[in-house]
Write a structure and sequence with these properties.
The chain has 453 residues and is of the alpha/beta class. It has two domains: 266 residues, NAD(P)-binding Rossmann-like Domain (Rossmann fold); 154 residues, 2-Layer Sandwich (Alpha-D-Glucose-1,6-Bisphosphate, Chain A, domain 4). Helices cover 39% and strands 18% of the residues. It is built from 14 helices and 16 strands. Helix 3 runs parallel beside helix 4 and helix 12 packs across helix 14. It is globular, with a radius of gyration of 24 Å.
């Protein structure tokens, strides 16, 4: 479902299949006929503190399925870092996955990378938001840790090259860009490319990885579940110890500055295909049967075609806001951040386009039918479950009915108190949103906006 709206999904050479990595037999059927498989699975967003155990289990089952299906080889993108007991849990988990993938005898090509610089990458987003939002940073001593970042386009080049070159089968390669910098220097380059004044970085020895992760969660869009493993890994030097891959698969390696510049151009042009916030399991609409369910349902007829109304609906969130009472949404976002939620910091991937599984501030797209339905499930911290959906029924060429529903199933007494506390604001927020969508739809219709292909 997440991949259906990608530009390449309609390519006749591409076949999208849904697979369950915990089902060896089913996965083997999915893999039948595959000469090679690229393994890019990570469980930090779905398994929380138990991600290492789940990653090892899933990799082991994938290896069993690959052998059963007759897959010729596996290419795995892992993590750099010295071996030994000092390795962080995150990087140690990457080593365990390497071992699991090779446990059934299928040849595995391992590409070990440090920070990958590219629009949408979690590590890149951490640095970008820290630099954008903090002119003065009190940081742990990890800012002096050496790192050898690599541009995402160079990573893709190595993955494709490994698939094409049989000499890489069964080998482990370190991959990195042409420079080794500490994180402080990478932040300096980031600030310069963002056109910002010099950022003052003050390292102190008292910030533990746990405290660093909470600080990262507060300042950036990343959740604590993602931030902590990444923060722990920052203590380890991640520098290539060999460069055999550069001779087998030669390519022009981007410097850190060039990689950051390319990523920022993608963001500016709204050409970010995927982001870290799209990872993880995406449940469908909640099961609202049984128990107390509060509803705020509103409806109006709009003198505009369905595709114009749908496009107006799909512009909610991010820089565009929520059409009404944006200050209330901002306050709710800060409350969510303080409670440990994502708040409004995730924004959205593209100011216009929306796809299944994407994040829109602290909502997630769990239902998407073009020109008909957009359903959002709340990922903010709530004493219950919340769903906001929009349904469009065409009334002819130039008119349609828009139904907007906010559903909330409370959890315990606090859930009931929460609902009654926010009800007074619903007329401002939800009625204003409906009117704002109407205004935007009429504006798009007047402009003659074309229906998406």
């Amino acid at each position: 479902m997440k991949l259906q709206d990608r530009d390449w999904a309609g390519n006749p050479l591409v076949e999208i299949q849904e697979a369950d990595l915990s089902d060896v037999d089913g996965l083997a059927r999915n893999l039948e006929g595959c000469e090679a498989a690229v393994y890019l699975v990570h469980s930090m967003t779905s398994a929380g503190a138990y991600y290492a155990k789940q990653d090892f289990t899933l990799a082991s089952k994938f290896a069993q399925a690959a052998r059963k299906a007759g897959v010729g080889r596996i290419v795995y993108l892992g993590g750099l870092g010295e071996t030994g007991g000092a390795l962080s849990k995150h990087l140690a988990s990457r080593r365990e996955v390497e071992s699991a993938l090779g446990s059934t005898g299928v040849p595995v090509t391992v590409l070990r990378a440090a920070m990958i610089i590219g629009s949408g990458s979690a590590s890149f987003e951490i640095l970008r938001y820290l630099v954008e939002r903090l002119p003065v940073m009190i940081t742990p001593k990890w800012v002096s840790t050496p790192c050898q970042p690599i541009a995402v386009r160079n990573v893709i080049g190595y993955v494709v090259g490994a698939l094409l070159d049989p000499e890489t089968a069964g080998e482990v390669f370190d991959i990195g860009g042409p420079e080794v910098l500490c994180y402080r220097d990478i932040m300096r380059v980031m600030a310069e490319e963002l056109g910002l004044r010099r950022r003052w970085v003050i390292p102190v020895p008292v910030l533990t990885p746990r405290l660093s992760s909470y600080w990262i969660q507060f300042v950036t869009p990343l959740s604590h579940e993602i931030a902590r493993p990444l923060a722990e890994g920052l203590k380890n030097p991640v520098v290539c110890r060999e460069d055999r891959i550069t001779k087998l698969i030669p390519q022009d390696l981007l410097t850190v500055r060039e990689a950051i510049r390319a990523a920022l151009v993608k963001i500016t042009e709204h050409d970010v295909a995927t982001t870290w916030s799209m990872a993880g399991p995406i449940p469908g609409d909640p099961d609202w049967a049984g128990g107390t369910v509060f509803r705020d349902c509103r409806q109006m007829t709009i003198q505009a075609p369905a595709h114009a109304v749908f496009q107006a609906v799909c512009r909610v969130g991010g820089g565009h806001g929520w059409y009404a009472a944006n200050w209330l949404w901002t306050v709710r976002g800060w409350m969510d951040v303080m409670a440990g939620g994502p708040g409004l910091r995730r924004g959205r991937r593209d100011p216009v386009l929306v796809g299944y599984g994407e994040a829109l501030d602290f909502w997630r797209v769990v239902g998407f039918q073009r020109d008909r339905v957009l359903a959002l499930r709340a990922e903010m911290k709530l004493p219950g479950e919340a769903l906001l959906d929009f349904r469009i029924d065409s009334q002819g060429i130039g008119a349609c009915t828009l139904q907007q529903r906010a559903l909330f199933r409370p959890r315990g007494l606090f859930g009931l108190l929460y609902w009654y506390a926010v009800v007074p604001f619903h007329h401002i927020v939800f009625r204003g949103m409906l009117l704002g969508i109407q205004r935007e739809a009429l504006r798009l219709a007047a402009m003659g906006v074309a229906e998406p292909a």
